[in-house]
Amino acid sequence: MPELLAGDSPPGALSWVASRRIAGERAKPADVADPSVADNLGLLLARIHDAPAGLDGLRPFRRRPPKGTFGLPPAGLRDRDGGQECEDGFVHGDFSARNILVSHGEISGIVDFERSGRGCPVHDLASVYLHEVLLGEMDGSRFLTGYAAACGARETVDDRHLRRHLREYVCWVLSWAPAVWPCR
Ligand SMILES: [Zn+2]
Question: Which domains does the chain have, with CATH numbers?
């Protein structure tokens, strides 16, 4: 994470922050397709989720489409598959290759914490899984194994829990589609 140097949120004006520069460039799909990068990405995400900072004061985080989108509250969002209950923790909120910096084939930094908040950390796993595994070339099992190993015996990744967050996230993305790609 880049070191925060200064920042301000003046009323009626844009907020800003300045941080120390991290060497590297935004990861490309080919970068995260590297097995060692997939391993390290899981480990790094586990460390972010285990960060000792308190959760008090963090805004709530949830990626759930507005009620009534597509005429649902979507059947696909019902917790019909069971699985582990959501946890209370820190969520990066936009964890995927576009917010990962790489330098000489190794991860050099994680950026863009502006959407971070307090919620279920499994959302970050779903974000990586959607962007880099389902839509990309990353080895999902290596990423999830790296994550679970870094968490030790504390937890493993529950498949049904991950699928639940994947459905929520995909529906949330689709709820924005008409605004981003309006019909002509
Ligand atoms: Zn959850």
Answer: 25-180 (3.90.1200.10)
